[in-house]
Every structure is written in structure tokens, then in C-alpha cells.
């Protein structure tokens, strides 16, 4: 009887412990490094890609060859660097920090809410892109487009600061941020797509071993694929350029908005008009990826190895 009353062990289901979701730490040194690399990128091949892309979006009948010839005619080699100083430098040195801060926070919140890594990356990219547009990129992209599309008479030189001041006097802050709604849509779809596609590509490379560290080539390929495929939103870029363009056209409506600009482009150039300049934009995206992935990793590795080498020499 006593044996019957003995406690019988009950089978229990083992509890599955999920790793605690941690927010990715933000490093000021990484933000500074990103700003330096992006400034280097835009000061080398980045701005020429940007200028040709903007020219083709504003002058949609011009081919790449014609765009190169016309850009060179506006100032030789320096013509390919219109808008670099100070606007492209301001944008390059600030947009990375804005993106990192915003996307990191939203990415973390999304993962805590139960979303996958790919969806969290997409949400983080969307939020980061919008933040970029409404902080520094709005007026910077406007002034870069003004420099590329405004008429420049031979022998006449009007400083970019004077033009910005005149716009501010006439139209205030709204004038300097003309087309910012298109910039915001472009950035949110661009970074949302880039982050999301890059993470899906990384998952494909990892296969079943989800914790495997990717090689440099795999990381580069993932980022390049994400950047190139994110250019599907080129229609938003063409609309943005048209809204900010200083090109004088007789039948161009005044006070353009997103919808009236899209209607105007379609009437003038058809569906293909929305994809003018997509080739140099893909080139720009891939070049930026190479700079950020290879350049960033190489510089970080150099500074990480330096203390180790100095430590060895000290104890030798």
C-alpha cells in the first residue's frame, strides 16, 4: 500500500529558452568612421555618379554619353563635382549617424515585438530613411540639384551660398526643402528595401547554419545586391529631381507636388521617363557599398590590430 502511495515522477516538457534580444550598441567611433568613409566616397566617384544621375533625371532625353559631354562642358572635370562643397559634404557627414541612431532603435523595438530579422531590418531602414530626409538630406539634395540644373552663364559666378540665401529670402525653409516629401519616400523605400533584401541574401548565404559568420565577399555581395535592387524606386528619384530642378521649360507647371510632377513626367516621357538615370544610380550604390564594407572593415581592423602590436612591442 505504501508503495502504491509513492510519488510517481511526472514527465515535464523542457522549457525552451530564447536568447535575450539586445539592442545593437552604437559606437561614436563607428559613426565618425562612417561619416569619414562617406565623405571620401562622395569626394571620389560618388559625386560624379550623383551629378550624371541628376542630369539624366532632369534632362530625360539625354543618354549617358550626352550627359557626360554636357556635364564636362559645364566646367571640365570640376563639372562632375558640382554641389560637392558644402552640400554633399554636409549630407555625407551627417546622414549616416541619423540612419544608425534611428534604424537601430526601430530594429530593436521590432525584434522585441516578435518580428523576424528581415522585417525588423526593413522597418529600421524605413524609419532611418524618413529621419534622414527631414533632418539634413532635404535641403542638401535640393541645393545639389540646383547646382547641377541651374543655368551657368560663361564668366558669371554666383556662389552657392548666395543662391541658398536668395531661395530662403523668397520662400523660407519650405523653399530650401522643396521636394522633401519625394526625398522621404525615396529614402524610406531605399533603406527599407536595402536592409530587408541584404538580410534575406545573408540568410541565403548562411543556409542552415544561421549563426555562421559571413565572409567579406558574402557581406559585400549581400550589400551590393541589396543596394542595386533597392533602385527599383527610381521613379521617386526622378520625381524628386523634377520638383527641385532649375531647368527652364515653357510648359512645366508651377508649384509641383508629387502627383502633378508624376503626371507631367508621364505626359512628356512616358513610363520609361521614370527610369532615366537608373544606371549611374546603381553604379553609385555599388561603389558606396564597396567603400563602406571593404573600406570600413579594413580601417577598423587596422585600428584594432594597432593596440595589440603596441602591446607586444612593449612587453618584448
Tell me what you see in this structure.
The chain is mostly helical and 316 residues long. Helix content is 70%, strand content 0%. It has 10 helices and no strands. The protein has helices at 28-58, 64-73, 84-112, 117-149, 160-176, 180-206, 216-229, 234-244, 258-269, 278-315. The longest helix is centred in the C-terminal third of the chain and has 38 residues, at 278-315. It is globular and about 60 Å long. The model is unreliable at 312-316 (pLDDT under 50).
Brief account:
This protein is mostly helical.
Structural category: mainly alpha
Note the beta-strand portion: under 5%
End-to-end CA span: 77 Å
DSSP E strands, number: 0
Series of H and E elements: HHHHHHHHHH
What composes the largest sheet? none
Number of helices: 10
Low-confidence parts, pLDDT < 50 over ≥5 residues? 312-316
In helices, the fraction of residues equals over 70%
* Overall outline: globular
Radius of gyration: 25 Å
Mean pLDDT: 83
Amino acid at each position: 500500500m505504501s508503495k502504491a502511495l509513492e510519488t510517481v515522477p511526472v514527465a515535464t516538457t523542457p522549457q525552451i529558452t530564447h536568447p535575450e534580444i539586445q539592442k545593437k550598441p552604437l559606437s561614436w567611433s563607428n559613426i565618425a568612421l562612417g561619416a569619414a568613409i562617406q565623405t571620401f566616397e562622395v569626394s571620389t566617384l560618388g559625386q560624379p555618379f550623383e551629378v550624371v544621375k541628376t542630369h539624366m533625371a532632369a534632362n530625360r532625353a539625354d543618354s549617358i554619353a550626352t550627359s557626360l559631354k554636357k556635364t564636362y562642358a559645364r566646367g571640365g572635370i570640376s563639372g562632375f563635382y558640382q554641389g560637392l562643397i558644402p552640400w554633399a559634404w554636409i549630407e555625407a557627414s551627417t546622414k549616416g549617424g541619423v540612419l544608425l541612431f534611428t534604424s537601430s532603435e526601430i530594429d530593436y523595438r521590432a525584434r522585441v515585438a516578435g518580428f523576424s530579422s528581415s522585417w525588423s531590418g526593413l522597418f529600421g531602414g524605413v524609419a532611418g530613411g524618413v529621419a534622414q530626409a527631414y533632418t539634413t538630406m532635404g535641403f542638401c539634395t535640393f541645393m545639389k540639384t540646383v547646382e547641377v540644373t541651374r543655368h551657368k552663364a560663361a564668366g558669371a559666378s554666383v556662389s552657392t551660398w548666395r543662391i541658398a540665401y536668395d531661395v530662403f529670402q523668397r520662400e523660407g525653409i519650405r523653399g530650401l526643402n522643396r521636394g522633401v516629401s519625394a526625398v522621404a519616400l525615396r529614402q524610406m523605400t531605399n533603406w527599407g528595401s536595402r536592409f530587408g533584401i541584404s538580410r534575406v541574401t545573408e540568410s541565403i548565404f548562411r543556409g542552415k547554419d544561421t549563426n555562421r559568420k559571413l565572409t567579406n565577399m558574402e557581406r559585400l555581395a549581400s550589400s551590393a545586391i541589396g543596394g542595386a535592387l533597392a533602385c527599383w524606386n527610381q521613379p521617386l528619384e526622378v520625381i524628386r529631381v523634377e520638383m527641385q530642378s532649375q531647368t527652364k521649360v515653357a510648359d512645366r507647371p508651377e508649384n509641383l507636388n508629387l502627383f502633378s510632377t508624376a503626371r507631367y513626367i508621364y505626359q512628356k516621357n512616358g513610363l520609361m521617363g521614370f527610369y532615366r538615370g537608373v544606371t549611374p544610380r546603381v553604379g553609385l550604390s555599388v561603389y558606396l557599398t564597396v567603400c563602406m564594407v571593404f573600406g570600413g572593415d579594413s580601417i577598423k581592423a587596422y585600428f584594432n590590430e594597432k593596440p595589440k602590436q603596441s602591446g607586444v612591442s612593449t612587453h618584448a
